[in-house]
Amino acid sequence: MAVSPTHYAQPSEPALSRNDELLRGIQSNQRAAAGALIDHVSGPVNRLIWVLLGADSEHDDLVHEVLDLVLRHAHRVRDAAAFDGWVRTVTLNVVRGELRRRRWRRLFVPAELGLDELDNAVPDEQARERVRRVYRTLDSLSADQRTALVLRFIEGYELTEVADALGCSLATTKRLLQKAERRFAALHGEELGASP
Amino acid sequence: MNHHSSLTEVAHTLPDGPTPLRRNAQRARALAAFDRRQQAAPRWRVRLAPLVAACIAIALVWLSVGHHRVVAPTAMAPLVSRDDGAMLALDAPLVAREHTVALRFNERSTVALQPGATGQLTAVDPAHVEVTLAEGALAAEITKGTGRRWLFRAGPYEVAVLGTKLRIDWSTTRGAIVVSVTEGRVAVTGPGLDRPRSVSAGESFDSALLPHTADEPDEPALGEFTRAAAMPRARAPTTTAPPPSWRQLLDQGHRAEALSEAKRAGVFRRINELNGDDALLLGSAARLEHQRALAASLLQRARVQGDDAGCEAAFMLGKDAATAGNWALAAQLFGEVSRAERSCPFVEDATGRLISVSIEQGETERAATLAKQYLARWPSGTWAALATTAQRAY
Question: Nearest CB to B30: which of A43, A67, A124?
């Protein structure tokens, strides 16, 4: 289901106050604050990794990496209004790093077997296969192209929001997206053509 | 179907994320890592406390014996800030571009990097302060009577100060230092000096004017003592802070560098000496860096230590065995985790995966039994759909 990037919008007053409280708690290393922080960020973090990687078998490990980084470094975030954006940046950096490593490894190591998480996530076989094809195509894009495409067309981010998430100018983001769309269209057409 | 609609279909087809049960397991795992860090920190401080106390005691003895008078150094390390009011972090680089960057100490000493200079404050404690000048010039006014020893390093040279006003110029291209003293006295040591050179008020020392001997290793007239005095002090490069530990690198998210540093420090030659938490930390990093063999050794070490770290390690080993298609090993490991204490956050996931592995192995009776047990405990679990199918089919 489509999800608007609600966490991207400037936080409301109650949300700011909540963020402020969380940050103060984590600065004094309180366990309860750590739990509350995880509860606050777990949804957006899981969602981003889920859509970027497609119910991946290493999903939980990557979520853990992000949560661990957030708990270790949240005490450095001084501005409560910037906290949610910072968590998103950490998440995107972890995922993009993982995507780059996988592309490198695929040059040398054949694709690995593994238990397919999509079986549990999408019960309908045909829908599952269509989703699988999309992610196989996305695997052929660069980390930045994939991220831009997923944020724009699956998560429904505005162009300015994609640019902000990637840390690029709007012009660069537009060029990146155009290139990503062209490449995806060409490869996905091949993918669809090759499917029985 | 065009590519836009393919992507949009994913948005509508894929659920929002993993099940709440799986997110609970993520939460428990993250909090377990948080708890381990909290427990590790005080032990580190407790081990270091006697060493710090010993250093302060030695400094006290040196000061009272070396100066033939009882001088109690200020009990606290001086507070230091930059002239823009920001507090200074040790080893943080200081760069003076077009303006002077001044460090002000609360006992009224000042160290001013002149425009174009770079340096670092490398040590501050009750007994001494060390400043490294990487390039350019600094001017210093050091308050007398604190009993604190000041040391300025510039390349291979050291300028020891007790209370004085001085200027130090250091050029890396010329490899030369100039020390000018306007008040008090300093001692300079370094290449070309076989004993400390005293520089008093109104005097200057320029190393470029020293006769060259240090660059002629075959010179037969150089005896052992002189050769040793001509060599720079055997220290780590003065402009480089000590390398971060593997823990610090992991803390900063630099996994590959952390593993390299742990290897360099010989940690992997002594895996059997690692405690469960450290073995798990390094094993997780190696796993995410796809260093399979290393990850397996480290996680196995964590596994045998038991407790929460052992449970998590066994679960990861199980996942890796399944990835490699080693179903027998995966079954053994997931089975172990599924029988673990309730506090282990991976019991549900491991049990579900064990159902799947059992099917892969053709162990249909086991799959059906496990499926029944799974559904009894976790009717809405991540693997509920598979468990239901297995129970019906077998």
Answer: A67
Length of chain B in terms of residues written: 394
Name the DSSP class of A110: P
Q: What is the pLDDT of residues A177-187, one digit of tens each?
A: 999 999 999 88
pLDDT on residue B59: 53
Tokens coding B134:
């990487």
Q: Which amino acid type is present at position B349?
A: D
DSSP state of B306: -
Residue B89: its pLDDT value, please? 56
Say which amino acid occupies B387.
Answer: A
Put simply, the answer to whether A64 touches B26 (Cβ < 8 Å) is yes
Strand B185-189 to B157-161 pairing: antiparallel
Between B77 and B379, the more confident residue is B379
Higher pLDDT, A30 or B300: B300
* Torsion on CA atoms A188, A194, B2, B4, rounded to nearest 10: -30
Shortest Cα distance, chain A CAs vs residue B8, angstroms: 6
- Name residue, tokens 């047990």: B373
Q: How far is CA A135 from CA A3, A50, A52, A56, A150, in A?
A: 19, 11, 9, 10, 10
**Mean pLDDT computed over B123-152:** 80
Q: For chain A, give the percent of residues with pLDDT over 70.
A: 78
Contacts 24+ apart (CB under 8 A), A23-26: A23/A74, A23/A75, A23/A77, A23/A80, A23/A83, A26/A71, A26/A74, A26/A75
DSSP secondary-structure letter at B325?
A: T
- Max CA pair span of chain A: 58
State the Cα–Cα distance between residues A149 and A178, nearest whole angstrom.
9
CA distance B280 to B299: 6
CB atoms within 10 A of CB A131: 21
Q: What is the mean pLDDT of residues A61-68?
A: 93
Q: How many CB atoms lie within 10 A of CB B177?
A: 24
Report how many Cβ contacts below 8 Å link chain A to chain B.
140
Q: Does A123 touch chain B (CB under 8 A)?
A: yes
Q: Specify the amino acid at residue A99.
A: L
Rounded to the nearest angstrom, the gap between the alpha carbon of residue B326 and the centroid of all alpha carbons in its chain is 36
> Would you say residue B68 has pLDDT above 60?
no
Q: Are residues A155 and A93 in contact, defined by beta-carbon separation less than 8 angstroms?
A: no
Q: Nearest-5° angle of CA B294, CA B35, CA B30?
A: 65
Which of A28, A38, A106 to mutate to test binding with chain B, by most B CBs within 10 Å of its CB?
A38
> What CA–CA distances, in Å, run from A10 to A84, A165, B50?
9, 14, 49
Q: Helices A31-53 and B20-66, interaxial angle, to 10°? A: 120
Task: Give me the mean pLDDT over the A11-21 stretch.
Answer: 68
